[in-house]
């Protein structure tokens, strides 16, 4: 059974800091990995999608990497802003099915 | 271009009642999945529909059922509601099983 873990569970940083969020998964037989952002009480906004054959994806100040063999992904946020405050979730899709398995998220607070 | 649309946004039901939640996928998407997200946790996969058939199901009891219509929209039905069914219900769509998912804003269900 696939298990996804996100560390840390919560993170508070001052504005302008670069930061890294971590995601690990137990079964490396994945098709892709997706990072999402969730604001309180809202739905999920897709940030980056990395296919299993890719090593990283970039969008603006965000960069996500994937090391499938070690079961790890990182989300790097450059020059953090208060508007980045949200919960960040990673999810993997296994090759054996079509469901997404989510971690419990990292709650990020960026202080002005 | 409208994304994934869910209705209603909020709902309050009494234990033992039945509820129907609705989802319209993003234009061009034919695959619809449903997730349940309890407070402070990551979303849990309920089931996925493709070509009006349930393609995969998560670990949820038979009280949870669904349907997909020819226009790809979908319904989630929950019978005999329990207090533990209180959660945010998220609908996600994709243009195929192995593409990234787009999520709606969710329906907040409260069972009293």
% residues in beta strands of chain B: over 45%
Q: What is the first-to-last residue Cα distance of chain A?
A: 41 Å
Q: Mean pLDDT of chain A, rounded to whole units?
A: 95
Number of strands of chain A: 11
Average pLDDT level of chain B: 95
Shape of chain B: globular
Order of helix and strand elements from N to C terminus of chain A: EEEEEEEEEEE
Radius of gyration of chain A: 13 Å
Our estimate of the beta-strand percent of chain A is over 45%
Which value, in Å, is the CA radius of gyration of chain B?
13 Å
Largest interface, with counts of residues having CB < 8 Å to the other chain, equals: A-B, 24 and 28 residues
The major beta sheet of chain A can be summarized as:
6 strands, mixed
Description:
The complex is a heterodimer of chains A (112) and B (112). Chain A is mainly β and 112 residues long. In chain A, 0% of the residues lie in helices and 60% in strands. In chain A, strands 2, 4, 5, 9, 10 and 11 form a six-stranded mixed sheet that branches. Chain A has a five-stranded antiparallel sheet with strand order 1-3-8-7-6, with no helix packed on it. The termini of chain A are far apart. Chain B has strands at 5-7, 10-13, 19-24, 31-37, 44-50, 53-57, 64-68, 74-78, 87-94, 102-103, 107-111. In chain B, strand 9 and strand 10 (102-103) form a beta hairpin. The interface between A and B is medium-sized, with 24 and 28 residues.
Chain-wise SSE layout:
The complex is a heterodimer of chains A (112) and B (112).
Chain A: E1 4-7, E2 10-14, E3 19-25, E4 30-38, E5 44-51, E6 56-59, E7 62-67, E8 72-77, E9 86-94, E10 100-102, E11 106-111
Parallel strand pairs in A: 2-11
Antiparallel strand pairs in A: 1-3, 3-8, 4-5, 4-9, 6-7, 7-8, 9-10, 9-11
Chain B: E1 5-7, E2 10-13, E3 19-24, E4 31-37, E5 44-50, E6 53-57, E7 64-68, E8 74-78, E9 87-94, E10 102-103, E11 107-111
Parallel strand pairs in B: 2-11
Antiparallel strand pairs in B: 1-3, 3-8, 4-5, 4-9, 5-6, 7-8, 9-10, 9-11
């Amino acid at each position: 059974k696939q298990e996804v873990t996100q560390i840390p569970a919560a993170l508070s940083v001052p504005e302008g800091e670069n930061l890294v969020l971590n995601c690990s998964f137990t079964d490396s037989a994945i098709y892709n990995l997706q990072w999402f952002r969730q604001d309180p009480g809202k739905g999920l906004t897709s940030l980056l999608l990395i296919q299993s054959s890719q090593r990283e994806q970039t969008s603006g100040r965000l960069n996500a990497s994937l090391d499938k063999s070690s079961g790890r992904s990182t989300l790097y946020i450059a020059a953090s802003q208060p508007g980045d405050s949200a919960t960040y979730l990673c999810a993997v899709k296994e090759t054996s099915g079509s469901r997404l398995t989510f971690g419990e998220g990292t709650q990020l607070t960026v202080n002005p | 271009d409208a994304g994934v649309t869910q209705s209603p946004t909020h709902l309050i039901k009494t234990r033992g009642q039945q509820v129907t939640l609705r989802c319209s996928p993003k234009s061009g998407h034919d695959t619809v999945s449903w997730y349940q997200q309890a407070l402070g946790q990551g979303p849990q996969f309920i089931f996925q529909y493709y070509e009006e058939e349930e393609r995969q199901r998560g670990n949820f009891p038979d009280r949870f059922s669904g349907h997909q219509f020819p226009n790809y929209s979908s319904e989630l039905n929950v019978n005999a509601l329990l207090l533990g069914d209180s959660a945010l219900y998220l609908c996600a769509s994709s243009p195929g099983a192995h593409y990234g998912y787009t999520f709606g804003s969710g329906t907040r269900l409260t069972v009293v």
